[in-house]
């Protein structure tokens, strides 16, 4: 299984004044985190799209481009590109350029966007929320198929045998469809022949197992030639040497992040009891020791059979040193444990009834 990290950028807090620090520093911190993730053997780093003072990672390909020149193996992707409010031609060109600079390590994860700040920012109406996404995903997939495209839609000027370059190193870019758990989006991924990425950020993580089954059933029914059939899971998470100390530390930052978001979007601040429920057992928050996190990843794999699991660790002004420490533990401790456990399960004889 592939393991990795995703981030929206996390602005540090000045320890003397308590004020939020530099959004520019947050971009440099992201680059440092990607470089460490590559060094400790993680498989994937994704940068999401946010336009807030606390989470200012709004230009993923710029940071990933810098990472392409200073890393060797790690896959570099978006998590997610808010495709509804972007231009598919520019998205494709930027990621194809990243793919060239990284020798074929670029990926796009395209979503509708649970954070809607980009709609007024780029002049789009939330009334067109799904129609925008459907049309732009169609164009993005057409661009991935051929360097010369003729296309017509409602929200963008038509293309008439337009040349779109550069082209990806390996012919096509891996394009994932992101969803927060929508059955229609699950089926849409299968019909398009795309891998699906589930964002599981609260509650019981295994409640997504029926969606994974729905995805595989739809794939089997539509039988798209050359379909890329994979499932990934994105979760909040944090790894510390001691399980309880990790939960106590990360709770403060988790609370701060969702308290601030709640003020903007109109939901209450989280309570510790709910956090403790979700940060243990089958909950969606993967916070704890390396051994605990490895055990919970393997358990969820038993329910969903997912191929990639990646974690948002830096939120609520988590100190950069703690973010880096968590990345190091994920790569050097959790990943070997997960690999060994899944290899052992694969080699075990099938149970007889």
UniProtKB/TrEMBL annotation:
GO cellular component: cytosol
Source superkingdom: Bacteria
Residue ranges of every copy of the Luciferase-like domain listed in the record: 1-305
Oxidoreductase found in the keyword field: yes
InterPro entries: Bact_Lucif_Oxidored, Luciferase-like_dom, Luciferase-like_sf
Keywords from the named record: Monooxygenase, Oxidoreductase
The protein's name: LLM class flavin-dependent oxidoreductase
Taxonomic lineage from the root: Bacteria, Pseudomonadati, Pseudomonadota, Alphaproteobacteria, Rhodobacterales
SUPFAM superfamilies reported in the protein's UniProt record: Bacterial luciferase-like (SSF51679)
Gene Ontology terms, MF aspect: monooxygenase activity; oxidoreductase activity, acting on paired donors, with incorporation or reduction of molecular oxygen
